[in-house]
Write a structure and sequence with these properties.
41% of the residues lie in helices and 13% in strands. It is α+β, with helices and mostly antiparallel strands. The N terminus is likely disordered.
Length: 357
């Protein structure tokens, strides 16, 4: 999604450009006429394209984000929600791209889509921040904490987001939703998932504190980074909603617990201190200091829940690959990680249960 991102398919999508140009004449004539599209090969869910318009150069660079083609699971690939939340956050302390226009009529190009201005930033995939010095690694990690804290402190009602999600029962709804999504995409029995499905509800029965906008997929590769350490934008808001303040933080920490050698790797097996990367407890403490909140007593159960949820997402990636409508080139390897993530979550939850007996 940035000028510096070279990992893209440069094949022009003529079947999209022509109807898109006609639509833009009415919806956003100020951005110019589309002249080329190139699809980013990364991203497992909603296809994303660089859109170059007749204005030329950086001024004429935009991003087109669409739903995937084919039969979609209920409530999945919600590009309309992505557009709405980023539009609402445009004047907040949370950095997001400028929204241009949203189209909820699938007849235009075959799917729903929206257009946003391209952000000049780089996507980084390795959480070890290869090539960084120790000080810059720490700066970028604590910068992510500041983004999470800014989200936690926002009042959804003041952003006209009162109806963006329910104000209570988040975990219960998420367990129900992702159980349904997982079962709809299930290809083989995953023992770890069955354990999590059985044990998680009782471990997460206590309502978590706070209410804020939740990104839903907060991790390094959903940030655009400029000048090595500056967070230019937080993108990919497909799973955003309202919920408790510790949800995004626990998700990010769960992602960092994943083995560094997995297709979507974390810091598992990595010596954080040697790299200048803060330990999980230090990151949580920094978040609590910025927000005035206290870490939930069932923190590890929340980590296990995030593993369950992400495993369900990965299972969806695998199913789309098997069905032939995956968005990214590495969908097969990424989707196969569902079992590994479920096993990680099951081990975390088993240790939590053992320590609370």
């Amino acid at each position: 999604m940035s000028e510096s991102d070279s990992n893209e398919d440069i094949t022009a999508e003529k079947t999209i450009i022509e109807p898109l140009a006609d639509w833009l004449q009415q919806a956003a004539p100020h951005i110019g006429t589309p002249i080329s599209l190139s699809k980013f090969s990364t991203g497992q869910s909603n296809p994303t394209y660089r859109l170059q318009t007749s204005h030329g150069g950086k001024v004429g660079r935009f991003v087109l984000r669409t739903q995937p083609s084919g039969v979609l699971l209920k409530s999945a690939h919600a590009v309309d929600r992505e557009y709405r939340i980023m539009k609402a956050l445009g004047s907040s302390a949370v950095p997001v791209p400028d929204m241009i226009a949203m189209c909820d009529d699938p007849k235009i190009i075959g799917v729903k889509f929206f257009i946003m201005r391209e952000v000049d930033g780089k996507t980084i995939f390795s959480p070890t921040l290869d090539g960084y010095n120790m000080a810059d690694r720490g700066t970028l990690f604590f910068g992510q904490i500041s983004i999470l804290a800014a989200l936690a402190k926002l009042d959804p009602f003041s952003l006209s987001l009162k109806d963006f999600g329910k104000t209570s029962g988040y975990i219960e709804r998420q367990l129900r939703t992702w159980t349904r999504q997982y079962r709809a995409c299930e290809t083989d029995t995953i023992t770890g998932m069955e354990f999590l499905l059985k044990q998680l509800p009782a471990c997460l029965a206590t309502e978590l504190p706070g209410l804020c906008v939740i990104h839903g997929d907060f991790r390094l590769d959903n940030l655009l980074i400029s000048n090595q350490i500056d967070i230019a934008a937080l993108i990919d808001w497909e799973l955003s909603t309202l919920g408790p303040t510790f949800v995004d933080l626990s998700y990010w920490c769960a992602m960092l617990r994943m083995d560094s050698g997995w297709p979507i790797g974390g810091l598992g097996g990595v010596d954080r201190a040697n790299l200048g990367i803060p330990e999980e407890a230090t990151l949580v403490d920094a978040f609590c200091e910025e927000t005035g909140l206290h870490r939930p007593d069932n923190w590890d159960a929340l980590i296990a829940f995030q593993c369950f949820r992400f495993a369900a997402i990965l299972q969806g990636v695998l199913k789309r690959h098997l069905d032939g409508n995956a968005s990214a080139n590495n969908a097969a390897s990424v989707g196969s990680q569902a079992k590994l993530v479920a096993e990680l979550g099951a081990n975390v939850l088993l240790q939590y249960l053992s320590s609370n007996r």
